[in-house]
Amino acid sequence: MSKPPAPKKPRTLAAQALGDIEPQTKGIVPPIHVATTFLRDPDNAYSSGYVYGRPDNATVRQAEAVLAALEGGARAMLFGAGMAAATAAVMALPEPGHIVASQVMYWAFRDWLLREAPRFGHTVEIVDTTNLDAVRAAVVPGHTRLVWIETPGNPLWTITDIAGVVAIAKAAGARVAVDSTVATPVFTRPLALGADLVMHSASKYLNGHSDVIAGALATATPDDAWWTRIGELRSRHGMILGPFEAWLLLRGMRTLDVRVRAQSEAAALLATWLGHHRSIERVLYPGLPQHPGHGVATRQMTGYGAMLSVQVHGGAAAAIAVAAAVALWKRATSLGGVESLIEHRASIEGPGSPCPANLLRLSVGLEDPEDLYADIDQALVRSAP
Ligand SMILES: *Cc1c(COP(=O)(O)O)cnc(C)c1O
Q1: For the whole model, what pTM was predicted?
Q2: Does any ligand 1 atom lie closer than 6 A to the CB of residue 109?
Q3: Which member of 9, 86, 158, 280 has the lowest number of beta carbons within 10 Å of its beta carbon?
Q4: What kind of architecture, by CATH, is found in domain 10-253?
């Protein structure tokens, strides 16, 4: 008797979008299902399983199945934005309570946690989650409902030990959610490390082409009351992703693996080269041995990702001047696309941000790293002392 086939690797599953064939035409690329309503059977049942387009959509389900496979989860859910996914997770917590969140994280969600989550009865504590002693000191058994971590943390690329936080949270009866947007499922699998929920801004690497705003959650425990409630809220609040966006995301995820590996290789080269540049004070990239999170990243990740930041000599003015002087890099916010982006991050985060004033955030795309370096080198030489 032949052995059962080994489970297919994530790269294989994603490249073929799980290998589904459209039954009517045998098309190897799925159609976009745009119907908002579905025929009821004469016996009053809905045998197809579809009733209406706000709770559910077949194209969205296909993209969700691919992401669940990539995360090694049982189920994924797609939303109209990363922020919709993150906020739905908090609003769906079974009861109000204490939330502990990473100090270095996506600024708009930190701001939502501090300003909006209290309206839902939560108290929010911002903690340096790279320090497990600080997490241990903040988590209150029986009172803390959720520990929200982002790793690598934007824009310093701080690394939080997911399994370490999970152990502390579980002992206190709290859940753990991980914003894994920057790591991508190619480099980190938070569910395998014990997290209850993984969140992505699918607008970034998952889609990868800077042409879709989308968000995602994935879980290993879809029967859990929290997951069920998240699904109810997505339907009630109309937060589902549109079918065309889901289809583009499905297409983008086919190349996720090769994209992020190539982008991460280029980022590592740029981090090394920029580390030797006389206009640069510091390079922040978890792949560099001197980065404070390097040790945990090496244990937890299978690659260091494609995001890095540089602190330039000469303060905020010099950093803004360098961003103004690039030609190939695009001066824009966001990350994870095939085109490289540069951003003076403190300008967008505003007051209260832990982002240093002289920091430039670099999202490395798929261009040749030598071209990327040459462009940033000429900008640094012209604009930073
Ligand atoms: C962009 C981003 C978000 C927000 O996602 P949107 O799709 O813009 O709503 C959340 N977390 C991280 C790490 C991000 O980069």
Answers
A1: 0.97
A2: yes
A3: 9
A4: 3-Layer(aba) Sandwich (3.40)
